[in-house]
Design goal:
mainly alpha, 8 helices, two-stranded antiparallel ribbon, three-stranded antiparallel sheet, about 10% strand, 5 strands
Length: about 200
C-alpha cells in the first residue's frame, strides 16, 4: 500500500520531507484529476472520503483504490481529503521508535502543512476546521463516539499531539489505580464529586 511505501521512508534522519512523501505525488495528482471545480476550489465526490494511504495500492505504476465502502453525502475539498489522509497516517506511526525528527513535531498541523507544501497544496485554517467537522461527524457515525468529544480531540491533536497522548496515558493510569483499589472509575469520580 501507499502507507507501507511512505512508512519505509519515515525512519531516515537525512531524507527531506519531500523525499519521504514522494511516493504520494502520484496520489495527489490522481486526486487532482478526479476533482471538479466548485466555487474556485478542487472538490472530490464524497465516495473518496476513505481514500487514505492504507487504501491505495500502486501496481505497475497505476493507483488502485480499495476498501471504499464509506461514502460521504457531500463533496469534499481536495485539501480536506489530503489533511485526512495525512492525519490518519501520522497517528498510525507516532509510537514508532526511530522516526525522522521531521515527523516528531508537537504540532501535527504544522507537520501536515510542511508535507503538503512539498506537493504544492497550501492549506488554510478553514481547511483544518472543515476536516475537524467532517472527521468528527464521520467518526460519530462509524464508531459510535460523541462528535463533540471527537472535535475536541482532533483540535487538541492538531495543536499539540504529544500532550493529548500524555493526557490519555495519565487518565489510563488513574483508571487502573482506582480499579486496583476496588473502585470503579465512575464510582470514584462520584465519590470525589467530579460528576456533572
Amino acid at each position: 500500500s501507499l502507507h507501507t511505501l511512505v512508512y519505509r521512508n519515515c525512519f531516515s534522519q537525512k531524507m527531506p520531507l519531500k523525499d519521504i512523501f514522494h511516493p504520494c505525488s502520484d496520489w495527489v495528482s490522481a486526486l487532482r484529476e478526479m476533482s471538479q471545480e466548485e466555487n474556485s476550489r478542487a472538490v472530490l465526490d464524497g465516495r473518496y472520503i476513505d481514500c487514505i494511504f492504507r487504501n491505495v495500492y500502486v501496481e505497475r505504476k497505476q493507483l488502485l483504490f480499495v476498501d471504499q465502502e464509506w461514502w460521504w453525502s457531500e463533496s469534499i475539498r481536495l485539501e480536506v481529503l489530503v489533511i485526512r489522509a495525512l492525519y490518519h497516517f501520522l497517528c498510525s506511526i507516532e509510537q514508532s521508535a526511530g522516526l525522522s525528527s521531521q515527523l516528531r513535531r508537537r504540532s501535527m498541523r504544522k507537520t501536515i502543512e510542511m508535507i503538503t507544501h512539498t506537493w504544492g497544496v497550501e492549506l488554510s485554517s478553514a481547511d483544518f476546521s472543515e476536516f475537524v467537522d467532517i472527521e468528527s461527524e464521520f467518526q460519530s457515525l462509524t464508531s459510535n463516539v460523541s462528535a463533540k468529544r471527537k472535535q475536541v480531540q482532533l483540535y487538541w491533536s492538531l495543536f499539540d499531539r504529544s500532550s493529548l497522548l500524555a493526557s490519555r496515558k495519565a487518565r489510563m493510569f488513574v483508571r487502573k489505580a482506582w480499579n486496583r483499589l476496588g473502585l470503579g472509575f465512575s464510582r470514584a469520580r462520584t465519590k470525589l464529586g467530579l460528576t456533572g
